[in-house]
Amino acid sequence: MYVTGCLFRAAGFMTLVVYALNRRWWMNEKGALAEARTFPILPDRFAKTIELALAEPAHSPALLGEKIAMLQSLLADLTRIATV
Predict the structure, then answer these.
(1) How many CA atoms lie within 13 A of 69 on its CB side?
(2) 2-21 and 46-54 helices cross at what angle (nearest 10)?
(3) What is the secondary structure of 29-59 as a DSSP string?
(4) Angle at the Cα of 26 (from 24 to 30), degrees rounded to 5?
(5) Angle between helices 61-82 and 46-54 in degrees, nearest 10
(6) Number of helices and strands (H, E) in the chain?
(7) How far is CA 72 from the centre of its chain?
(8) Would you give per-residue pLDDT tens digits along the chain (84 residues)?
(9) Whole-prediction pTM value?
(10) How far is CA 49 from the centre of its chain?
């Protein structure tokens, strides 16, 4: 449960970065991911990756590892975009 909570927080912080890169105001998490889909500056498959990582609980350490790897890869893409 703790790891899943950390994944949720990481996804939220990455969404905040996407809002900042696009010079948009973040109000709250409700609808933020759907709105972020429309932004011109964001990693490929940003929303889809977050949805897959958070869609259902991981029932094994291996699945948790896969979800962590998904968000680590997304973070690497976001870091490249943000540092250009």
Answers:
(1) 7
(2) 170
(3) STTHHHHHTT-SSS-TTHHHHHHHHHSS---
(4) 130
(5) 160
(6) 4, 0
(7) 9
(8) 888 899 999 999 999 999 999 999 988 888 999 999 999 999 999 999 999 999 887 789 999 999 999 999 999 999 999 997
(9) 0.90
(10) 7
